[in-house]
Amino acid sequence: MKDASILLVDDDRHVLDSMSNWLRSLGYHLDPVASFHDAVEHLQRNRYDLVLSDIRLDDADGFALLKFCCEQFPQTSVILMTGYATMDTGVEALRAGAFDLLTKPLIDQELEMSLSRALSQREVLAENKQLKAQLDTRVGLDNIVGHDPRMQHVFDVIENVAETRATVLITGESGTGKSMIARAIHRRSDRRDKAFVEVACGAMPETLLESELFGHVAGAFTGATGTKIGKFKQAHLGTIFLDEIGTASTSMQVKLLRILQDLQFEQVGGTETFTVDSRVVLATNEDLNEAVAEGRFREDLFYRINVINIELPALRERPADIPLLSQYFLRQVCEDVGKEVEGFSSDAMDLMQGYSWPGNVREMQNLIERAVLLGRGGTIDVDDLASHLRSAPVTSIPASVVGRTLKEALAGPERQIIRDVLDANNWNRNATAESLGINRTTLYKKMKRLGLEDGTPQLPSTI
Asked: CA 75 to CA 126: how far, in whole Å?
């Protein structure tokens, strides 16, 4: 990386000139300056791959410049030089963020090697950052599987709100994937490189939850032997995900309302006020409207957190996604356990599509993991599925038509498809139209043309 740009800082003009000439002879682009002030001005005007600075400068020191670079230009590597090096100085420099500390008089080979290593590391870090960004963008939604229109709407909302700071409330039954949605929002935001902190509010008593969220000072309560940093502070500049928010006590709701409005809080037992910049995503499987009506949840907090609401449909409400999800989890499990399973038998898939999935996506994942671990064949059959699934009543429409719109079905026996769905819905035309993805008027015209007006099979007219 000999075409790299370097800012050289040294108040000794002789050293500055000789090093400038030598570094330029190696092919580096160089800007030499003799003071901290000039170095800051150059950094604010130009982009540098590396700063090479003496520790002792007339108007400041190299550590001040190092701190400035770490705070304002973290992508720029810094190498410090000194003629008065000690072991403590070296440790201090590395702890402060310097890539290296070199001792004057400099040895050409040693300096060239240090520059090469710093620039190579910077190149690797930049490449890793780019790959991570690509992976986060891809994984952000690709690990949330669903072609159902309601899931597509969820994806659209994630895309629209990810880059904003708006508070997001995710609602839905247990096991529908609320945590995955929260992580997808974080991964697709400009906070993706910062912390994602998850807190299960329903798993802790109120006193412990307050300490977990806001931290505590030493002596705040029995057992508080030291100061603890809370989750909100850990999530500064990142995202904090508060799961099961509907279980929060009234007093905790007051504290949450304050931090959502003012972004300020005090540690348990402390008096210092902290201010944080944390993106807040919350989730609940409760009906918060009902909780507000019953006085269990503060109305002002509900309006504050319900800025953007993402409602996740239950798995039984999107049966067309069951084959897609089952194959996704099958591939995952097979990779994890090192087994080869090709797929599901048609009978097993029919059974899975007819099951109500009270535990939603999480139940499916666990069930498929069990089937892979206990199954002996290359395909998962009915006998490999859990007994409670085999004995459960079928609650969905026939697998031959589930999730298909009329447009998708035109290549096949259109009349039979409509008849199957009508039978499955007890000839309820509204439900049938919704299942097929068409409006009622279109369904009525199709039924008339196909001889299905009164439920009596007739020969269809020419389509």
From this structure: 8
The enclosing domain of 156 has a CATH number of 3.40.50.300
Do 307 and 215 share a structural domain? yes
Separation of alpha carbons 164 and 386, rounded Å: 43
Q: Can you tell me which residue has the tokens 């963008």?
A: 137
- Helices 62-72/36-45 angle, 10° precision: 20
Cα angle at 429 between 420 and 357, to 5 degrees? 60
Whose CA is closest to 363, among 182, 176, 179, 198? 176
Render pLDDT for 299-347 as a digit per residue (tens, 0 to 9): 999 999 999 999 999 998 888 888 888 998 999 899 888 888 989 998 8
Do the Cβ atoms of 314 and 177 come closer than 8 Å? no
Q: What's the 3-state SS for 32-96?
A: EECCHHHHHHHHHHCCCCEEEEECECCCCEHHHHHHHHHHHCCCCEEEEEECCCCHHHHHHHHHC
DSSP conformation letters of 265-320: EE-BT---EEE---EEEEEESS-HHHHHHTTSS-HHHHHHH-SEEEEPPPGGG-GG
CA dihedral 240, 244, 247, 250 (to 10 degrees): 30
Q: Backbone dihedral region of 237: left (phi > 0), alpha (psi from -120 to 50 degrees) or beta?
A: left
E strands, 297-429, are 308-311, 343-344, 379-380
CA quadruple 143, 147, 148, 149: dihedral positive or negative? positive
Over residues 85-96, the pLDDT tens digits come to 677 787 888 888
In a domain, 411, yes or no: yes
Assessment of whether the complete model's pTM goes beyond 0.90? no
Domain that holds residue 71: 5-126
Task: Give the count of beta carbons closer than 10 Å to the beta carbon of residue 91.
Answer: 11
Q: Which of 290, 311, 332 is the last residue of a domain?
A: 311
DSSP type of residue 199: E
Region of residue 236 (phi > 0: left; psi between -120 and 50: alpha; otherwise: beta): beta
